[in-house]
Here is the input.
Amino acid sequence: MNAPASLAAVTPDAEWADQALDAMLARVLAELAPREPLTIIEWAERHRKLSSEENPDFAGDYRLDNTPALRGILAAAGEEGVQRIVVQKSAQLGYTAGVVCNVLGYYAHWKPCVQVVMFPREKSAKDFDAEKFSPMVRATPVLAERIHLKSRSDGNSTTRKKYPGGLIKFVASNSPSDVKSTTAKIRIVEEPDDTNKDVRGQGNSIALLRERGKAVRGGLELIGGSPTAKGASEIEKEMRTTDQRRFMVACHHCGERHEVEWEHVVIPGFELDDEQLADPEIDAKWPRRDVYGRARWEDAYYVCPHCGGIWTDDERVANIRRSASEPPFYGWVPTASAADPGFFCNELQSVFDGSRVPVLAEKFLRAQHLYDQGDPTEMVTFTNATRGRLWTYTGDLPEEDELRERAQKYAEWTVPAGALVPVMYVDVQHDRLAVCVWVFGRGEEMWLAYWGELPGRTIVEHAGAWLELEELMGRTVMHASGVHVPIQAVGIDSGDGQTSDAVYAFVRKHHHRGRPVLAGKGASDRVGRVEIWTKPKPVDPNRKATKASRYGVHVNIIGTAKAKDTLLGWAQEGGRVRLPGTGPGRMHWYEGVRPDFYEQLLGEMKIPSPSNPRIRQWVERTDRRNEALDCTVGCLWLSRHLQLHLRKPHVWDMIEARLVQASLLDEDEAAAEAEASVDGATSSPEAPAAAPAAPLPVPAIPPRISLSPGRISLSSTARFGPGR
Here is the structure.
């Protein structure tokens, strides 16, 4: 009787053990089971919370209906096989909070991995953390559980956030160590037009960041920002290789789709026809106001380009939301063939109250008023930040065809009579040397004698392309008088840290007083504050702190921005390249020059600085290379180094006289040779033939010696750099 009682007593414990075991196994299986598929859009609408710090009007659950045009971008970011997305955008779209933050949150919570976000400057990264990212983490429970913002033990800081399975780094584009330090699956670039185009001589910051993802499968690169100047915009360059999607919205009147754009906005009174302007009651119908003129921005409206139907703002918003709810592209239509999606965004795609049509119309009229008065600053901002379009700086530079039409009829390595002093400048690339030879005359009038490239490695000293450069330096330029004039000075770009050793070795070997070979480096000035030529600093032989010191050479700082101001200018008719005819400051080139010379000579433009629009700075154009311009700038610097711009007329007369004398001596020598050949023909056949006479050397034209009547002064030659 005791046995059944004991079994009865044990049974509840056994049931409890079975239940506990089942529960434990269920938890283990739940942990090991793969997560349910969840897209970025689903994650944002299920888990994301919007903090009142980000936007008090929309605090709470994140709803993509508040940023409908972004739905297609998020869908592309979660699409399998997409590795790169580019967004050329306006302001006021909610892109940073709606795309960047959602992508970061999704890959921190649902698919943990390493993520890197690159900003133009460190301050931009810190501002993003304080104003966007940290408020999102605090407001979103699933992120707050994983990212401990105040935990120093986890290694967290303003620019570094760790979580289980990965981390997020905020880096600045001007720091090579930041950009190159971390391999990342997710790489995001904010405002690419403001990022560094050359990170301390190591290349474009976006290209350097792209290298960080080569070793990771299934990575994603997201580049988004507002455009700037046409031809110089980094986002424009990136968009060229995408499928260039446009947001197409169906009209509720006719059903036809079109891109919602500023061109379809009508401002009553802005463009009155002749009949309306002649109306005697025009002042009553369209009263004139300061700034806005007769335009009524309060009554501005949107019009369908297909049927002419008028849209109210509420109808525009409803049409946008309706189109943005249609998968798979959510209103976006590709207009080009490419693997990577790209999106053109403008402020009329926004549904926020601050982007209503009358508000934008008032902004446009203010910008137009200043533009009519000669101040394009606000119109540039309206074009870039509201329309999301590139601003075209018309009239600042001539077109390539205009330069091509001015080409002159002389051959390569020959020059007309006015060209007297040839100089050569070399721009160093890793796989080639770009070379220009310009010949200067009175008043810094200059003739192009050669433009070309020498292919080969340039990192190794005295090898590859450097051997070809040695031969090229020995070539002469044939003057119109028939005299062959040697190169008078050579400059070589030493700004690239990877090739500077080879440059210094070449300069050390070939520099001498008769023909200086100098190392040059562009000043870190894009505005034009540094003069074209400045005296190089002396080298302390007891100090070995720099490569140049170890090689015993000077590094000459070139005011490249000032030189570009002189050659290209930035206002209409402002640069020498525009000057027609002959005379001081004119530039000439030969008809057979390599075709890319013209576009490369115009390879940069001076545009307003993003941080201070009243200051213009030189930027490289993204649709072409600029080595020909760099070489031309270097030749102008060599002219200033030789003080050609300071030479008196009698000095130029003396140089020309020497060339004429040399040509006459050549003619006498040729006549003597002809007479000798005639005599040899009538002489005995047994007589040995006379050896040909060596060509008469061209009288040297020492470019650094200032000539005065009755004396020669060598005092200025002490300014030569290395090898003194």
About this structure: Confidence is low (pLDDT under 50) at residues 677-724. The chain is about 35% helix and 15% strand. The radius of gyration is 35 Å.
